[in-house]
């Protein structure tokens, strides 16, 4: 592969090499109100915010902190109508207590099912407050952590750390001037335990986040920077401890026009590949024992050329099945089909494929949830369980076999797209044609959550889920 790497080009734009600042996490068992630093952030539920008849907090931690601040906490929360709902936050500037600011961040009603998302959101909110305040150090605590089991405390610390790390990250590689603002350097975690198990969990979280950030950078970068050749470059120089092989194809090009066509956002169309590469980086550092993992990327340059496919072309997949191309915009599933055949030939037991495959899944599930398609109930349970630990949202979709009728061709074994109705289902049924029946297979259509419109940036979706799934199948 050395000759491929030597030809790698980053196009006309060269991204700056940015050294992202490291954040040091430490567990603290001392009295929270004695902490001194830039920001003391407390995650509170709606129940924590309840007050007695004298408008004083009933929660012991808030009551003690409020007393330390001369009642300022209860006064400001009432004035700002802060009730602890998810997404709410308030920042109070204080003086004379060894603190610069105190922040209350809402966790919602505290239900168990939403805890991972809430705690990750807590970390993200802290990162935002720290960035706005140019804070170097913060302390994070929960108003109510007494009922948490040791395992829950580890998971909570991990979710908070992940939210803080990823919330602090900013992709400025393509900006001509770097930000000179102060950056967050240290985070103290109160009430979530201490010792080697917590340290190990935080290190694991940091390693997962490096994979998420790699995926973010791959998706954020435009097509003149992330080419098939440069993906090989990324693998050899960013994930050097893995052996890899690539399937490289030439694709067709579909001119999208009209409002909402989002042709400039087609750089996101390699979100599945970026998730695989991000997971490869994270798992290469974690090194789970007792499991063999193959990372396969079907990379192609999707440009107009004399070798690009045309509508009506008939292609022969690597397993011998023929495909009539009735839509050149559905090129990703053609390369993915060969990748699935290749994966099955490696003798693996389980396959999870990921792709930003259809707009139909975004219509069905919106921008925050990925669709899961599989004929295997056991594998579905494994991956969905991993996603819940990771704090990412998946929803299992039906594989309605009767819909395959719309995928039949008069001149080949199949066409590459069906009608508009059930488009994500017919796409999954198409992929199924290239999977050995003896192999457990699951497909994730992640076209929605790969990108955050509000932040105008990639999310790094699915890396955390993939890592959790592989680790759950290991003997680590």
TrEMBL record:
Entry annotated with the keyword Protease: yes
GO molecular function: manganese ion binding; metalloaminopeptidase activity
Aminoacyl-tRNA synthetase is among the record's keywords: no
SUPFAM superfamilies: Macro domain-like, Zn-dependent exopeptidases
Keywords: Aminopeptidase, Hydrolase, Protease
Coiled-coil portions: none
Domain Cytosol aminopeptidase as annotated: residue spans: 327-334
Listed InterPro entries: Leucine_aapep/pepB, Macro_dom-like, Peptidase_M17_C, Peptidase_M17_N
Family annotation (PANTHER family): CYTOSOL AMINOPEPTIDASE, LEUCINE AMINOPEPTIDASE-RELATED
Family: Belongs to the peptidase M17 family.
Subunit structure: Homohexamer (dimer of homotrimers).
Protein name: Leucine aminopeptidase 2, chloroplastic
């Amino acid at each position: 592969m050395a000759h491929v790497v030597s030809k790698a080009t980053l196009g006309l734009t060269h991204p700056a090499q940015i050294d992202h600042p490291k954040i040091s996490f430490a567990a603290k068992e001392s009295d929270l109100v004695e902490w001194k630093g830039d920001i003391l952030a407390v995650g509170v539920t709606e129940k924590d915010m309840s007050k007695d008849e004298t408008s004083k907090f009933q929660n012991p931690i808030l009551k003690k902190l409020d007393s330390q601040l001369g009642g300022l906490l209860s006064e400001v929360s009432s004035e700002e109508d802060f009730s602890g709902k998810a997404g709410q936050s308030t920042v109070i500037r204080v003086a004379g207590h060894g603190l610069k600011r105190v922040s209350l961040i809402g966790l919602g009603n505290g239900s168990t099912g939403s805890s991972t998302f809430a705690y990750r959101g807590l970390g993200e909110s802290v990162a935002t407050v720290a960035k706005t305040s140019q804070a170097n150090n913060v302390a994070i605590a929960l108003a109510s952590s007494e009922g948490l089991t040791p395992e829950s405390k580890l998971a909570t610390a991990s979710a908070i750390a992940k939210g803080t790390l990823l919330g602090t990250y900013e992709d400025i590689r393509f900006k001509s001037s770097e930000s000179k603002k102060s950056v967050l350097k240290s985070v103290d975690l109160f009430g979530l335990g201490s010792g080697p198990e917590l340290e190990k969990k935080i290190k694991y979280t940091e390693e997962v986040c490096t994979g998420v950030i790699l995926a973010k950078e791959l998706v954020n970068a435009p097509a003149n920077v992330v080419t098939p050749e440069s993906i090989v470059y990324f693998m050899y120089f960013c994930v050097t401890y893995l052996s890899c092989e690539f399937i490289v194809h030439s694709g067709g090009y579909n001119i999208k026009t009209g409002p909402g066509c989002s042709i400039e956002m087609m750089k996101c169309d390699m979100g599945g590949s970026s998730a695989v590469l991000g997971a490869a980086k994270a798992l290469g550092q974690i090194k789970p024992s007792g499991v063999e993992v193959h990372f396969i990327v079907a990379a192609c340059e999707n440009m107009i050329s004399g070798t690009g496919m045309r509508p009506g072309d008939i292609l022969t997949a690597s397993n011998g099945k023929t495909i009539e191309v009735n839509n050149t915009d559905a090129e990703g599933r053609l390369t993915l089909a060969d990748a699935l055949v290749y994966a099955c030939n490696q003798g693996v037991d389980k396959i999870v494929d990921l792709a930003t495959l259809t707009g139909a899944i975004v219509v069905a599930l919106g921008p925050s949830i990925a669709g899961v398609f599989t004929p295997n109930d056991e594998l579905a349970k494994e991956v969905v369980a991993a996603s819940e630990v990771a704090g990412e949202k998946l929803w299992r979709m039906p594989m309605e076999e009767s819909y395959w009728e719309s995928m039949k061709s008069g001149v080949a074994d199949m066409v590459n797209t069906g009608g508009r109705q059930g488009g994500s289902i017919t796409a999954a049924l198409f992929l199924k044609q290239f999977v050995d029946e003896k192999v457990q297979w699951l497909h994730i259509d992640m076209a929605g959550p790969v990108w955050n419109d509000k932040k105008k940036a990639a999310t790094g979706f699915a890396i955390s889920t993939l890592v959790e799934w592989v680790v759950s199948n290991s003997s680590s």
